[in-house]
Every structure is written in structure tokens, then in C-alpha cells.
Amino acid sequence: VPDSSSPTSRSRGSSPKPEGELRLPLPAKAQEWQVRQLRADLEYWSEKFNCAARVEHSSVVVQLSPEAQAGGAKSELFSLMEYDLQLEQGTLSRGVVSISG
């Protein structure tokens, strides 16, 4: 009988916050059309960097691999979010992620 409690049977998504997960809040003033555009751009970004990304409630949730982090995925993610959501350029890269209002 195989031991189902072995560490090799544990899936990546079983931890509450996987390593490399990044959650970025959406601004309270985000328009529906902006969120639709962001979803489309996140799909392209996900394919380009081979990472998972989704809009979940009022946040963007991404799963970055070490390779993607080294490859500039985070800065490109910040740039596309700033563009789609019409935020001041550099808002996310400066660490200003509480963008409500």
C-alpha cells in the first residue's frame, strides 16, 4: 500500500502562500473596462514569462518562478498594471501598492 503522506505527493498549491506569490491590490477607482484589459494583458504576460496570474476579487495574484523574477517579469508586470489602470508611472516599482482611492 503506497504511503499517501509522503512529501512527494504534496502539490505546489497546497501551501497558504506559495513561494514567489505576489498580491497587488487593484485601485478602488478601477473601471470594469480597465480590469478587462488587465486580464487580457495578464494572459499575454503569463504566457511570455511562463507564470500564473489572475485577478482575484480586488487584487492581482501572480506566481513568479525564480527564472521569471530574474528575467524582468516583475518590472514588466508593474508597467502593464500601471498602464492599464492609469496609475502614475513607477507607482508599483516604488513599492506603493496600497493604491486605493
How many helices does DSSP assign? 3
Main sheet: which strands, in order across? 1-3-2
Classified by CATH, the class of one domain is: Alpha Beta
**What proportion strand?**
5-15%
Give Rg in angstroms. 16 Å
Beta strand count: 3
The helical percent reads 25-40%
**Biggest beta sheet attributes:** 3 strands, antiparallel
CATH architecture of one domain: 2-Layer Sandwich
Which class of secondary structure composition applies to the elements? alpha+beta
Could you list the spans in which at least 5 consecutive residues all have pLDDT below 50? 2-15, 97-101
**H-E string:** EHEEHH
- Work out the oligomeric state of the chains in this entry: single chain
Average pLDDT level: 80
How would you describe this protein?
Helices cover 35% and strands 15% of the residues. The protein is of the alpha+beta class and 101 residues long. The chain has a domain of 66 residues: Ribosomal Protein S8, Chain: A, domain 1 (2-Layer Sandwich), CATH 3.30.1370. The chain has a three-stranded antiparallel beta sheet, with helices on one face. Helix 1 runs antiparallel to helix 3. The N terminus and C terminus are likely disordered.
